[in-house]
Each structure stands twice: as structure tokens, then as C-alpha cells.
Amino acid sequence: MFGKTYYHGLLEKYVILFGTLFNDIWINRPDVNDNVINSQKVPLSYSPREKLLARINGIEENKDPLKQPFAVSLPRMGFEIMSFDYDPMRKMTTTNRFIKNDTANQDKRSFLYTPVPYNINFDLSIFVKNTSDGTRIIEQILPYFTPEWNVTVELIQDPSVILDIPIILTTINQEDVYEGSFDERRSLIWTLSFTMKGYFFGPVRDQSVIKLANTNIYDYTIFDGIGDDSQEAATRITITPGLDSNGYPTTDVNNTIDRSLIKSTDPFDYIIKIESPPNEE
User: Comparing 183 with 208, which gets the higher pLDDT?
Assistant: First the structure.
């Protein structure tokens, strides 16, 4: 699209990031003496809430009742992306750049323009069969969100872009799914809604390193409103990088190596040369 095909895999990284926060939650069940008799890891998967609920009940549409799969054991967690929203409050100057110098060609460098901010809304559903399991899971999540949790992530590898991504807990709801007769299976569902403050980047672009800048200043003589466009510049200002043979920055035009030998990563200074009138090359 727009002349260049690219893919950073950012949405996939955001899904992995969100799932990683909750993929190591355990619950311990004690006996009457408060001794742990059972420890269980809570499974986590990316799946729609309704589909996971159907699997918990052991029901799938358009299938022979005799061939229905086994019901999913509880507790279990599932999450999914609900929506995307552009966030104008986090918009930055679009001309800012993330720059990386090219080690293979010192006259080139790659860069990314400022990313576009988007809010990615996630829902985390926690399915349990009794209240105590639900509270044991919830209490391991809530203390970390006040109401946000910041995660430092490398979003782009080349050039390297590392940003803090806030994840904000917005709402918490509990639902008791208990319909039908007394022998029907009961499910308690906790739904936690989160907003991830993400960014999306455009393509990586290449740019030549500028090592010579010329500025010409003209002194027009105005007569009867007519300017003389044929005259030469009255002053020429030339700016080039300056680096001596020992690798130290310099502003002395007579003590610098040729600008073609100066790398973009060198600690060079700037040589400003003013010619009035300019010398012919």
C-alpha cells in the first residue's frame, strides 16, 4: 500500500505481550488447617468468550450429540482483542524520527517516522466453578494495576525502537452463568477489560548522510521595482564536518581530513566557511 510493502508484526507482539502478563497464574487450594493440598496452573488461551464458554459446557453446534467433545476443565482464562481506537492525545510531531546508522555504508542511514498511537482494547475472561478460585485469581492481578502497568518492549529491531507500553485496567465484571436445572454445570465468569496504549509504525526508509551544506546570500539592487536576478551571490556559507587525522573533532578547515572519509558515527565538529564574494570552483 502507498508504494511500499512492509510488516513489523506489531499486532502479534501486542497479543503476545498481553498474554504473557497472565500466563503464569497459579491457585493453591488449602485444607482446613490452611495447608496446601493442591496447586494448579490456570490455562490461558486466545479465544472468544462465547466459544470458550461453549467448550466449557461441552457443546458445539451442528455436531452429533454422541460425538460432542469433553467439556473443558475449570479454572481457565481466555482473552481477545475487542476494538481499536485512535488516540489523538498521544499524537506526536510526525516529522520526528528514529534513526540508525548503516554500519555497512557510512554514507547511509535508516529511519522510521514517529508512530501512530492507537488504543487496543482487550477483554480477559476468567472461568471458574466456585467463588474461592475466582478470588484467588483476581487477587493476583488487581494489585499490579493502579490502574495501569507499564511494560518496556522492543517494538522494532532494525532500527531498534524500545518504548514503554501502558496497559490500563478499565472495568471488572462478574457473571454467574447458572441456567437450567440443578444438575446443570455452573460457571462463574470474571471479565476484566484492559486498554493497551500501543503504537503502529510505517516502513523503514533509507537516507543519505548530508556532509555538505551550501547557503547563498544575494544582495539585490532594486530599481523601479525590477530586481537583477543575473547577479552572483554576495556571500556563500559552506558547512562541512570537521575531524582531524587523530579522530578528534575540529573546526579548522586546514586541519581536517576529507569529508568523504568522515563517518556518520564519528565525533566530528562543524566547519563553517564564509566566502564574500564567493570563490569560483
Answer: 208
Q: Is the pLDDT of residue 191 over 90?
A: yes
- Is residue 223 predicted with pLDDT exceeding 50? no
DSSP codes, 57-78? TT--TTS-GGGPPPPPPSSEEE
Examine the pLDDT at 119 and tell me if it is beyond 90.
Answer: yes
CB 209 within 8 A of CB 106: yes
Burial 75-100 (b: 16+ CB within 10 A, else e): bbbbbbeeeeeeeeeeeeeeeebbeb
Question: Does 156 or 61 have the greater pLDDT score?
Answer: 156
C-alpha cell of residue 264: 556518520
For the chain, which domains are there? Answer: 10-206 (3.30.2000.40), 210-275 (no CATH)
Rg (Cα) of the chain, in Å, rounded?
32
Asked if 268 and 241 touch (Cβ cutoff 8 Å), the reply is yes
Find out whether 150 and 19 touch, Cβ atoms under 8 Å.
no
What average pLDDT does this structure show over 64-93? 80
**Using an 8 Å Cβ cutoff, are 49 and 125 in contact?**
yes
C-alpha to C-alpha distance for 27 and 15, rounded to whole angstroms: 24
